[in-house]
Design goal:
The chain is mainly alpha-helical and about 350 residues long. It has 15 helices and no strands. The chain is globular, with a radius of gyration of 21 Å.
Length: about 350
Amino acid sequence: MSRPARVAAVMAAVLVAAAVMSAATGALGIPLGKAFAILFLEPLGIGSVTSTEYERAVVIGVRAPRIVLGVLVGSALGSCGAAVQGLFKNPLADPGLVGVSAGASLGAAVAIVLGGGALAAMPEWMRPALLPLAAFVGGCVVTAAVLRLGSGLRGVAATMTVLLAGVAMNALAGAMVGMLSYLADDVQLRRLVFWTMGDIEYARWVDVACTAPWIILVLVGLPRLGRTLDLLSLGEREASYLGVRVARVRVLVVGAVALGVGATVAVAGLIGFLGLVVPHLVRLLVGSHNRLVIPISGLAGATLLVVADLLSHLLFTTARPVGLFTVALGAPFFLYLLRKQTRLV
């Protein structure tokens, strides 16, 4: 078995173990064997049913949506982070650089602070969708603006223009979110701050159903661009000589990142550091080939987010926003990488 295959197998095993422990942890403690059976065996009709109806309701109705959404969100952030770093040839690049996170924050802020009239006019069954929809649209609009600003030039300059446009749009969206926060009342401000922390605690199956198609599309599409990104690492001019349509690849990668991150931010808020740290970790383990880094980063991102969510339930009696735990886990590791790289220099 090759090293990448071994790394993927270990991460998958850790992910399954964390998912089972997360399903077993909560106000109602469930034995690990029962939690494993409810998650993986009973849906397939394997083995005899040993769990009670109440235990199945808790796991399937409350905890499983959180776990599945954590897998989807983490895998999307990890894969998108690896793709962005491969596109910009910059290990410090983050999916937020293309503006999707800032745009989603702006859309959410508009919905929370100024969306009262729209909320009142909407049917009651549609009201829970206003905030995710506004966040998704905001992320896509800002990313489209970034792409438009960067589409006037070709080659290296165009990629740099996209990067600088993303920085500018992030700053502009951040300023507008700050202004809306200033105008918000106490209830709106609390909701906005909590949303920006990132959380999957109150995930529902409807959130999974709305998010899964877009994220699966991204998870299938991005690895197919891995070999092309490997060619781009030689330089955009050299890649174009080898038949790579650089402008098209740039639009495909940024568009896929906008779709994937926009979908995750819409249902989970802002979850930091996954898209930045996970690709670093994967490159240390499997090398720098994007065709391997992108899919394994998705698996590693899912594992890290589910583990962070599990820790939030193990360490506190009431759950805390999982975004705080991803930063708490990711920041020390990132500092370690910087220190190690400084020593090598």
